[in-house]
Amino acid sequence: VQLQASGGGSVQPGRSLRLSCAASGMISIVNDMGWYRQDPGKQRELVATISRGGSTNYGGPVKGRFTISRDNAKNTVYLQMNSLKPEDTAVYYCNANVLSALTLRDYWGKGTLVTVSS
User: Fold this and answer.
1) pLDDT at 87
2) What is the rounded CA–CA span in Å between residue 22 and residue 15?
3) Are the beta carbons of 20 and 32 closer than 8 angstroms?
4) What is the torsional sign of CA 23, 28, 30, 36?
5) Interacting residues of 83 by C-beta distance below 8 A, sequence separation 6+
6) How far apart are CA 16 and CA 65, in angstroms?
7) In the prediction, which pLDDT does 40 show?
8) What are phi and psi of 72, to 5 degrees?
9) Taking the chain, what is the end-to-end CA distance rounded to the nearest angstrom?
10) Out of 2, 23, 85, 104, which residue is the most buried by the measure of CB atoms under 10 Å away?
11) Neighbour tally for 62: CB within 10 Å
């Protein structure tokens, strides 16, 4: 199973970006999916998660600005990031809880860099 993230880049404060992450491989079912971020020298922190049924959970700093969604048919999770701030600068990692070959475990993507700067 692999997670491939895309959509990172550099933007000015106040602008928007949309991240995507697709799970591929020998997948029976994808349960919770989510996004986490990490600044150099800091711990990885929760951005948002979404259950297979669409229940969402957001980290405090992004509530009201970011929206997580998913397409179960495509095993893909999205993160719409609006009103971006310089403190949103980080490497964003996608995560998925996947049942594959009778084994249930978490998988991580390689990360995509988001830079918010004027």
Assistant:
1) 95
2) 24
3) no
4) negative
5) 14, 16, 65
6) 10
7) 82
8) -65, -35
9) 37
10) 23
11) 23
Each residue's pLDDT, cut to its tens digit, for the chain (118 residues) gives 999 999 999 999 999 999 999 999 999 999 999 999 999 889 999 999 999 999 999 999 999 999 999 999 999 999 999 999 999 999 999 999 999 999 999 999 999 999 999 9
Measured over the CA atoms of residue 102, residue 71, residue 64 and residue 35, the dihedral's sign is positive
Question: Rounded CA gap, 106 and 60, in Å?
Answer: 23
As given in the structure block, the two tokens for residue 100 are 């594959």
- Give residues with Cβ within 8 angstroms of 80, minimum separation 6: 16, 18, 66, 67, 68, 69
Query: For residue 20, which amino acid is it?
Result: S
CA–CA separation, 56 vs 105, rounded Å? 20
